[in-house]
Amino acid sequence: MIPNELRVLANNFFIARADEFDLTENSGCGLYTEAFVEEARNKGFDKVGHLKKSGSATQYNGHANDAFFYKEPVGPDKLYQAVDIIANAESKPPYNSDHQPPASGWSVDIARYKDSDWLEKPNSGGGGNSVPNTVPWVSYNENGFQRLKNMLKHDYERRPQGADFDVSVWAGRYFHNCYMGPEGKPLGEQGALERVKRELCESLKIPMDNYFG
Predict the structure, then answer these.
(1) In whole angstroms, what is the distance from residue 159 CA to residue 115 CA?
(2) What's the CA gap between 26 and 157, in Å, rounded?
(3) pLDDT tens digits, residue range 122-138?
(4) Rounded CA gap, 173 and 197, in Å?
(5) What is the pLDDT of residues 34-60, one digit of tens each?
(6) Closest Cα partner for 83 from 165, 6, 160?
(7) How far is the C-alpha of 22 from the C-alpha of 93, rounded, in Å?
(8) What is the largest CA-CA distance in the chain?
(9) By CB neighbour count within 10 A (0-12 exposed, 13-18 middle, 19+ buried), where does 74 fall?
(10) Is 30 exposed, middle or buried, given 0-12, 13-18 or 19+ CB atoms closer than 10 A?
(11) Looking at the whole model, is its pTM more than 0.85?
């Protein structure tokens, strides 16, 4: 039996965190699902894990991009269930009454999965069948790149002339700081944005503010 408390957690997680992810894309859905599984396990739901996906199946890092695996056997065959937590995953605008945007979901599948369908740890290297923008040693976080784009737009608009070719330099610096970092110590998304922001404002000769995308 999947506890109702887990359903409440999933809904609250969507309310609190969904805006951090681009749920119209496979990668955003996959990263959201990874974040939820981590949150659930941190809250003591150790039966929550990733549903293994492979081949041509829609997947991210080797797992379902919109569902989790619940490791409690059901019925005489002792099979497991999965739960979809993103309704309309990867749905893109324009929206209408028949085509809705991604939303919080809770759709419990029939018990049909086995131990072999449990993915102990997401694959390193990212992306799934429809996400080619990955390299073997790291999965890209589209949320971070979107924030960088927003930050660059914001700061370039605060000076007399528009953006120039240095935009590519700031993107490269963000990538290096986020995933490799100074002296081989990655700064992560927020740390990389803060470091680039300081250098960017100094270069553009504009005052530092607290907008990070």
Answers:
(1) 58
(2) 31
(3) 865 444 443 334 344 44
(4) 11
(5) 999 999 999 999 999 999 997 777 899
(6) 6
(7) 12
(8) 71
(9) middle
(10) buried
(11) no
